[in-house]
Specification:
Elements: H1 8-16, H2 27-34, H3 50-61, H4 65-74, H5 87-98, E1 104-108, E2 111-115, H6 132-147, H7 151-174, H8 184-195, H9 206-229, H10 241-268
Antiparallel strand pairs: 1-2
Helix pairs in contact: 1-3, 6-7, 6-10, 7-8, 7-9, 7-10, 9-10
Length: 269
């Protein structure tokens, strides 16, 4: 879902509650609201104006299906219980902003869903599609953490990205839900078999085998590095900026390759 940049500020203010039409959300409430959509923000010193923060989240979500989910949840009638605000008025206001871009919120049962100009619902399952845009967004989050010197957080985010890509590959190809037990190497093994890239040395040229073996080493190293240096555990390693950059860049390379292989498989199948 992509909207004009001209309306992102208006949507940001509307969601923050600055227009008086929708329920007011404090800074911590806004952070909690947007963190439901894979953001990882914290409220504290240096936090921008509420409407600026809200607008930034709309801008970051623009061009992805994440924006659809934000708008649908924003007008969830349950958010208006106990307030004097009317969800119907808010829906009308949102529709005034997004209709020129070819979208509208329509009532579907008790909730509201985004439809396109032809009245077609954007299907829920499409929200889980993982591709290069998703990777780019997650790598940018990692880089933001590096810039803020949160090196362990960047490593944890990189590992989470790899897990998400591997799970998506297995679930897409095998049509089965993956119960993630946190074992990155097992996930990678399943994804390789699903993609049919688990080559033997005599099946491909030596140079190609070496590169693919390097990919194996990246995943193995990332698994061990994130266990020791990621913020999910006590930091048993004095993580520096160059360590975090190495992990994040390696994760990006691995994920880009795996998604490319998956996309090629989709066209062949």
């Amino acid at each position: 879902m992509k909207i004009s940049k001209k309306i992102t500020k208006s949507l940001g203010k509307l969601i923050a509650g600055d227009t008086g039409i929708a329920p007011y959300m404090s800074g911590p409430e806004l952070v909690e609201f947007y963190n439901e959509y894979d953001f990882d923000d914290e409220y504290g010193q240096g936090f921008p104006s509420r409407w600026v923060y809200s607008t930034d989240k709309i801008t970051e979500s623009n061009g992805s299906l994440k924006l659809q989910k934000i708008l649908e949840d924003f007008v969830d009638p349950r958010r208006f219980i106990g307030t004097e605000k009317k969800v119907e008025i808010v829906v009308d206001e949102v529709n005034k902003l997004i209709k020129i871009d070819g979208y509208t919120l329509v009532k579907n049962g008790e909730l509201y869903k985004v439809t396109d100009t032809h009245g077609n619902f954007i299907q829920e399952e499409n929200l889980t599609v993982i591709g290069h845009e998703f990777i780019r967004e997650q790598i940018e989050k990692c880089q933001q953490k590096i810039r803020s010197e949160d090196y362990n957080g960047a490593i944890t985010n990189a590992r989470t990205l790899i897990e998400a890509v591997l799970i998506y590959i297995v679930e897409y190809i095998q049509k089965t839900e993956v119960k993630n037990d946190g074992n990155l190497l097992n996930l990678y093994s399943r994804a390789k078999k699903a993609l049919k890239i688990d080559y033997k040395k005599d099946e491909i040229p030596d140079s190609a085998f070496q590169i693919l073996s390097g990919l194996d080493s990246i995943i193995s190293g990332l698994s061990g590095f994130s266990n020791n240096a990621g913020d999910r555990n006590a930091n048993r390693f004095n993580t520096k900026r160059h360590h975090a950059k190495l992990v994040v860049n390696s994760a990006m390379t691995a994920c880009d390759f795996l998604v490319d292989v998956l996309n090629e498989k989709k066209t062949v199948d």
